[in-house]
Amino acid sequence: MAVLIRVLMKEKTLTPEQKTIVQETWTQIAPIAGKAAQLFYGRLFEIDPTTRPLFRFVNMPMQHDKLMGTLGTAVGSLDNLEALLPVVEAMGRRHVAYGVKDSHYDSVGAALLWTLEQGLGAAWTAEAADAWGTVYAAISAVMRGAAKVEESKVA
Ligand code: HEM
């Protein structure tokens, strides 16, 4: 069975309540996506300076839109995970070519959760943190898995 489905449904279940929390909190972040993305990259480069050179040739404002756009798509697809899976796997494979290493996913996860906390204020409850942590863990597990397969082909 597909990794994403397994992670979300079995290993760490995303309950209907958690889905609702993620989708509702996302509607609060979407209008401030530009600001949130700025906070996110600032935090990421601070906690893991090894990520900074990866973005050296990248147009950062455009990158901001892509990251937030992808998160929005993922959040909108929580009810249709099978459709999301090949998209996330392909994204994981592309990230190998960007120079992204396995450990970077933890740094990105930490920066993302911190950013949501800043953006959501009082709406960042323990339940929201848990739900978002689960969603990020699932998406990044699929990307990391696809990246490992890709790396073993290159090696
Ligand atoms: C859930 C995790 C992630 C999501 C949703 C995500 C999303 C994206 C998207 C949508 C793009 C645009 C290009 C494409 O689709 O291939 C992109 C590019 C990029 N990502 Fe990620 N990413 C994630 C994790 C990471 C991590 C862990 C790193 C490492 C620090 C990273 C570094 C980059 C870089 C350097 C590019 C730019 C490539 C270029 O345009 O030259 N990403 N990401």
Write the layout of secondary structure elements.
Layout: H1 3-11, H2 16-29, H3 33-47, H4 60-76, H5 81-97, H6 102-120, H7 126-154
Helix pairs in contact: 1-7, 2-7, 3-4, 3-6, 5-7, 6-7
The structure holds protoporphyrin IX containing FE.
Task: Please give a structural write-up.
- It is a single chain.
- The protein is mainly alpha-helical and 155 residues long.
- It has a single domain, classed as Globin-like (Orthogonal Bundle), CATH 1.10.490.
- The protein is 77% helix and 0% strand.
- The protein contains 7 helices and no strands.
- Helix 3 crosses helix 4 and helix 5 packs across helix 7.
- The two termini are 27 Å apart.
- The relative contact order is 0.19.
- The mean pLDDT is 86.
- Protoporphyrin IX containing FE binds next to helix 4, helix 5, helix 6 and helix 7.
Full CATH superfamily name: Globins
Would you state the CATH class?
Mainly Alpha
Low-confidence runs: none
Biggest sheet layout: none
What is the molecular shape?
A: globular
Features:
mainly alpha, globular, single chain, 7 helices, binds protoporphyrin IX containing FE
Compact summary:
The chain has seven helices and no strands. The chain is mostly helical and 155 residues long. It has one domain: Globin-like, CATH 1.10.490.
